[in-house]
Design goal:
The complex is a heterodimer of chains A (about 180) and B (about 200). With about 180 residues, chain A is mainly α. The N and C termini of chain A lie far apart (about 125 Å). The model of chain A has no long low-confidence stretch (mean pLDDT about 80). The chains are: A mainly alpha (about 180), B mainly alpha (about 200). At the A-B interface, helix 1, helix 3 and helix 4 of A face helix 2, helix 3, helix 5, helix 6 and helix 8 of B.
Chain lengths: ~180, ~200
């Protein structure tokens, strides 16, 4: 074995493997190779010892405690993030649904002017308000001096308005100027 | 190498990691403290090797144990716990390396230590880390530390690094060659002979 062969082995093999056979015989007789081997062995040994001296400055109990606390906080933070994300998605969905949902088409109103024969406009208004189920959908404008009442109502309601006016504003059946007593339903 | 290597097993008197993990999963924080106590030196050494900076290694070690605690439920136990922990540490160190500002002079500034002996030891260790970090690329550095400094076999290192056995051996050969060339090049007796 030549010095080059030995140095090539020294370059890559574990030092224990140089302690056998031809490599060991060569190192025993070659002063230079032996010295190189000892230098490498000493440096690598000191590397291992130095590596063992690398120690954390943090006590392990503190490290463990901090780790548990931080991990638990992060777990809670994850739940918070999920909750916030769900709330954000719900808000966005709500906004989208509110914008996309078709609005209820307004009910077409019918306007009609009634020329009263018997009732005063105020009496007629009171009559209609007390006899219609949904008085809110009714728009009344009494014009007392003229004996006229303007009514705006949906078609269905307007049919009932006409029926009521026909029934109670009919001089042949009731006495004009007599206060109408409307039966409560 | 020299027949000397750092301990890579759980310290005597400590329960096996799987048993500790089972206890931790049942909410036993003392078991986690035992686990940290057993693995902290190793995780710190890995962090130092990967980051090249003892101060940053403290942060990496802390983060590694936070994640380990957080993800302990995902450890199935079909591989070694040490390998699992190593991969967590490596991932954190990699992220820290990518995000960190280059700290070229960080190693030169030693942390103030009141004990002179400890200070010398630390300086020596820091110089060693710097030597390894400067001499070897990351993959070779990992293999060299795991095999030659911590005494693992290439197969064990391959399992920890998720590498093929043959790749670990190749990296180890290259790492040894670089380190030994560096040793000889910087040794006073051989410096004049180096090219």
């Amino acid at each position: 074995m030549t010095c080059d062969d030995y140095l090539a082995m020294l370059e890559t093999l574990p030092l224990e493997e140089l302690g056998y056979g031809a490599a060991r015989d060569h190192a025993a007789h070659c002063h230079d190779c032996n010295r190189v081997t000892r230098v490498v062995a000493e440096r690598e040994r000191s590397m291992i010892l130095a590596m063992a001296d690398v120690r954390s400055s943090m006590p392990s109990a503190d490290l463990a405690y901090n780790s548990v606390v931080m991990a638990r906080r992060r777990r809670i933070a994850v739940f918070y993030k999920i909750g916030l994300a769900v709330a954000a998605v719900a808000t966005v969905m709500g906004i989208i649904v509110a914008r996309v949902r078709p609005t209820v088409a307004p009910v077409a109103l019918i306007h009609q002017k009634f020329f009263l024969q018997c009732l005063s406009p105020d009496q007629a208004a009171a009559l209609l308000r007390s006899n219609l189920d949904d008085a809110n959908r009714l728009s009344l404008r009494a014009r007392p001096p003229l004996g006229v009442i303007d009514v705006s109502a949906p078609a269905v309601e307007m049919l009932r308005v006409r029926a009521l006016i026909d029934r109670y504003d009919n001089p042949s059946q009731t006495k004009c100027a007599v206060q109408v007593v409307v039966p409560r339903r | 190498m020299t027949g000397l290597s750092l301990s890579t097993t759980v310290a005597p008197g400590l329960t096996e990691p799987l048993e500790l993990i089972a206890r931790i999963r049942h909410g036993d924080d003392d078991a986690f403290a035992s686990l940290v106590s057993a693995y902290q030196p190793r995780v710190f050494r890995w962090a130092v090797t990967l980051s090249g900076d003892p101060d940053e290694a403290d942060d990496i070690t802390q983060e590694a144990f936070v994640r380990a605690y957080h993800k302990l439920g995902s450890f199935r136990g079909d591989g070694s716990f040490e390998g699992w922990l190593y991969r967590i540490t490596r991932r954190i160190a990699g992220r820290a390396r990518r995000g960190a500002v280059t700290r070229a002079d960080a190693l030169a500034q030693d942390v103030y230590v009141t004990d002179p002996g400890a200070r010398v030891d630390r300086q020596r260790a820091v110089a060693l880390i710097r030597t390894i970090a400067d001499t070897l690329p990351m993959r070779q550095r990992e293999v060299f530390v795991l095999c030659d400094l911590e005494g693992r076999t290439p197969s064990e290192a391959a399992a920890m690094l998720d590498m093929k056995d043959v790749s670990v051996r190749a990296s180890l050969f290259k790492a040894r060659a670089s380190i030994r060339r560096h040793i000889l090049a910087t040794h006073p007796c051989y410096r004049e002979q180096s090219p």
